[in-house]
Amino acid sequence: MAQVPVKRILLDVNVLLxxxxxxxxxxxxxxxxxxxxxxxxxxxxxxxHGVTTLFYLLARAKGAAAARRTVESIAGTFGxxxxxxxxxxxxxxxxxxxxxxxxxxxxxxxSGCESLVSRDPAGxxxxxxxxxxxxxxxxxLTGGPDRVAEGAEGPRRRGRSRRPPRRQAR
Length: 170
Prior knowledge:
Elements: E1 8-11, H1 13-20, H2 27-38, E2 43-47, H3 48-62, H4 64-77, E3 79-81, H5 85-94, H6 99-110, E4 115-117, E5 131-132, H7 134-142, H8 145-149
C-alpha cells in the first residue's frame, strides 16, 4: 500500500467528538491524532463551521461553560480552515448528498490539506483529496498499521495538555 501524505490534515467533527466524548472504540485513535497535533508533529485543522457545531453539541451535552473551555482548547491546538463563499461554491459543485461533508472536503482542499480524516469515509465520494479513517491516519503518522494494532503510544505531550479533561466518574 502506498503511503498517503498526512502531515497537514483536516479533522472531521466526528473525530473531535470521539476524543472529547471518549466514545468507545473510537476515542483512542482520535486522542492520538489530537496528541500529535498538540505536540506539533502534524498540522491539524478543523473546518470553521465544525467549531460552531461542536460548541452547540457540547453546550447541550455538558453546558455552555464546558463547551467554551473545549472550543478554547480546540482553537489553541488546531488550525481553523476557513469556510467562505469560494468553499461553499466548491462544496455545492461536489453535489454530494451530505452538504456538511461537502463543505468539509472543500475547506480541506482550499486549506492545502493533504488528507481529510473522518470516521465516515464513504460520505466523501470522489473526494478531491484522500479521506482516511482515524486509525489509518494514526498508523501512517506513527510508523505503520502494526503500531496501531499493538496500541503503540503516540508522542508524549510536553507541558500542560490542552486536551479537554477526562470526564469524572459519577
